[in-house]
Amino acid sequence: MKKTVPLFLAAFLVGALASLPLSAENADPKMSFFIISSGAGNGADLGGLAGADRRCRMLARAVGVGDKTWRAYLSTTAADGQAGVNARDRIGSGPWHNAKGVQVARDVDDLHSGDNNLTKETQLNELGLMVNGRGDSPNRHDILTGSQLDGTAFPAGKDTTCGNWTSHGEGSAQVGHHDRTGGGQNPSSWNSAHGSRGCSQENLQGTGGDALYYCFAID
Known about the structure:
This protein is of the alpha+beta class. 19% of the residues lie in helices and 13% in strands. The strands form two sheets. Strands 1, 2, 5, 6, 7 and 8 form a six-stranded mixed β-sheet that branches. Strands 3-4 form a two-stranded antiparallel ribbon. Strand 3 (96-97) and strand 4 (103-105) form a beta hairpin. 46% of the residues are buried. Residues 7-20 have low confidence and may be disordered.
């Protein structure tokens, strides 16, 4: 006799599978946006923009979408004769989808508008998991960006990028809140809520972060 799976058990199995972390075999091919699941452990010293981009590629490759060109959403300020870099200019034209295939923004203007689809539930890491926010333990909602609300770099003269992502000691980095809540000048901003207490892993964790940042695919 052919046996069937009870309806309640089938529903349970579907829900359980949906909650599993992604792997190279089941990553959504449209995935073009994620929050890194973990930093390198050296605070805001990311090895500059090149080091941050490299980590984006490495984590994307681990879930099967490493064939795309990945960029960290990070700004730098003008220093040592070098012009600043705007995070919004690094990430392509969109649209962008999270690890589950859900569109989070249509284009650059939509991304930096009030109409984007950036929430705690949609801003997933590369494994398709939600990132801890305010009220979770530990809180990891501070996301490094070094950017103003429109995605541009701050004027030179004040450290908002932890030495252009090379410092794990002195300095500060502008961060956003991926869960769209908290303190600071712009508590509901995903990319420019407030400055960090410092650049070390300990200081970043002390203000509700963990040296996490956003990665976008430009193609």
